[in-house]
Design brief:
alpha+beta, 16 helices, about 35% helix
Length: about 525
């Protein structure tokens, strides 16, 4: 990676934060919860877990106790990947969804086993230094005593209410006054406080094998859903081997399928094959090649990625040098293309980054998937359940077809980067469904290849591939550049980054060679980076 450039910037009211300990996430009070753990002598894992738990209270529009989660941890010597996504209920089978064109996106028929709680417990037990009861206390306090609803969360809450108000348990938990809470209103969730206390005191046992598990199973049975006590008992979080791709003199690390991180690595490989470093960031040719590489990666992602145990072939084949060169050769440097998936066998969330003075770093993400997820909330528990079942396919010939005990395709992905010596360079991530892998590519290009400071890289105008030749750009991108891209065949759509949330929200913590950290977070949203 080049020397960090603090002179480059894009329109923003923020500057990168620097210190020996750092927390970056999407909600200021949650960032404070993580920093409190560091100030109490905890490490980066303690900070990440405390922040993640607090986010279920403070940002229920994107995650909850019933979310899924993934993490990458640098323990001071090596990297560890954690897949804590849940599996489908054992009774799920394509015949259960006969007559439907796609998997349901709301209600009980979209709910798979929630895995976030297992992530908190697994991380804390292996790497943490503080008790889980301590890590959960900030979240418990906010749920019990209340927190003021911020403008962005208030808007998303209203959207969620409009979508989910008829779902079982939703209104009692998230609209107790018969409406979504207003911006600036103090919101309390005593049931969630009690549940988090029980989870912390039992090290998650109650959630998967005890009283809370029984409440979830009973509520599912009451509504004719498939989720059972055995489904919850059989859940496990798995330590997994990371996928890696050399890039810009270092490497980018992603979790293997069932997530979409492999698309980031495919695209970066294609861009290195095209020697993307020859072009200036934000130039038409730089943007064109980046978009085309991402389009190639996404068609392979859609065709092949599913639960790692159900892949048609090892995921590493999509990253082989021969296959990457073959895919790179399909790009016309002067014209936008429409691509199909290749044949390698023949050759939408909250994110947390933390770091501590000892050198430990964490990249962590958890999500309900679509806003409030399924909209289902288990009565008197505050447990809102994700809708990750919507990630399955109903195509019987697709590797991601729905099946009992199987993990669905996942959008949420944490990322990590190492330098040329194999030492930690950056924990980074982006929220926002299909924007995530695309956002990882854009951040890696700007920070690792071009040396932009992380706040500038996050503030820079982003783009998002939709389908075919259609690409959505933030409206702040240079007009002359957009005109050139149109002439190259890109179907340009403009969106205001401040009036919608389709470009995701990013956080990053970069390790400076001198031993301190540079932290940055999304300036378009409520994010907060704290250092000490």
């Amino acid at each position: 990676m080049r020397e960090v450039d603090f002179n480059v910037s894009y329109p923003s009211h923020r500057v990168p934060m620097m210190g020996h300990n750092a927390v970056a996430t999407s909600q200021p009070l949650a960032a404070q919860a993580g920093m409190r753990m560091l100030q109490q002598g905890g490490n980066a894992v303690d900070a990440a877990v405390a922040t993640a738990i607090a986010l279920t209270v403070l940002e229920p529009t994107g995650n909850g106790i019933g979310s899924d989660a993934f993490a990458i941890v640098w323990d001071g010597r090596e990297l560890h990947g954690l897949n804590a996504s849940g599996r489908a209920p054992a009774a799920w089978h394509p015949s259960r969804f006969a007559g439907q064109r796609a998997m349901p996106e709301t209600g009980w028929e979209s709910v798979t086993v929630p895995g976030a709680v297992s992530a908190w417990v697994t991380l804390a037990q292996r790497f943490g230094t503080l008790p889980l009861t301590t890590l959960a206390q900030p979240a418990i306090d906010y749920a019990r005593h209340g927190f003021p609803v911020s403008p962005l969360i208030g808007e998303l809450w209203q959207r969620g209410y409009d979508r989910h108000k008829e779902q079982p348990g939703f209104r009692d938990c998230f609209a107790p006054q018969g409406r979504a809470p207003r911006t600036g209103e103090l919101f309390r969730n005593p049931a969630q406080a009690a549940t988090l206390q029980e989870i912390a005191e039992t090290q998650g046992e109650s959630f998967y094998r005890g009283a809370l598990a029984q409440k979830m199973a009973d509520f599912a049975r009451e509504h004719g859903a498939a989720l059972t006590l055995d489904d919850l008992k059989n859940h496990r979080a798995d330590w997994v081997t990371l996928l890696s791709r050399p890039f810009a003199g270092g490497s980018v690390q992603e979790l293997p399928p069932n997530g979409q991180g492999i698309a980031t690595l495919i695209a970066l490989g294609i861009l290195e094959a095209w020697e993307i470093n020859r072009y200036a960031p934000d130039s038409p040719q730089w943007l064109h090649l980046s978009i085309e590489a991402m389009k190639l990666a996404l068609v392979d992602l859609e065709r092949y990625v599913t639960d790692e145990d159900h892949l048609e072939f090892p995921a590493e084949l999509l990253l082989s040098s021969d296959y990457i060169r073959q895919r790179a050769g399909l790009i016309d440097p002067e014209r936008a293309g429409v691509f199909r998936f290749g044949s390698p066998q023949q050759s939408g969330t909250v994110y947390v980054a933390t770091a501590d003075a000892s050198g430990m770093m964490v990249s962590f993400i958890q999500s309900n998937y679509m806003g409030f997820g399924s909209g289902v909330v288990v009565p008197e528990t505050g447990i809102s359940l994700q809708n990750r079942g919507a990630g399955f396919s109903l195509d019987p010939d697709h590797p991601n077809v729905v099946a009992g005990g199987k993990r669905p395709f996942h959008t949420i992905i944490p990322a990590f980067a190492l330098d040329a010596q194999g030492l930690p360079l950056m924990a980074f991530g982006m929220m926002g469904g299909p924007m995530q892998a695309q956002g990882h590519v854009q951040l890696a290009l700007r920070i690792m290849l071009h040396g932009q400071n992380p706040q500038a890289a996050i503030d820079a105008p982003r783009w998002r591939v939709v389908q075919g030749r259609e690409v959505v750009f933030e409206s702040t991108l240079d007009r002359n550049t957009l005109s050139t891209l149109r002439r190259m065949g890109h179907q340009v759509v403009l969106e205001d980054p401040l009036s919608n949330y389709n470009f995701g929200g990013a956080q990053a913590i970069v390790r400076d060679p001198q031993g301190f950290y540079i932290a940055a977070t999304e300036s378009r949203k409520d994010g907060q980076a704290l250092v000490s």
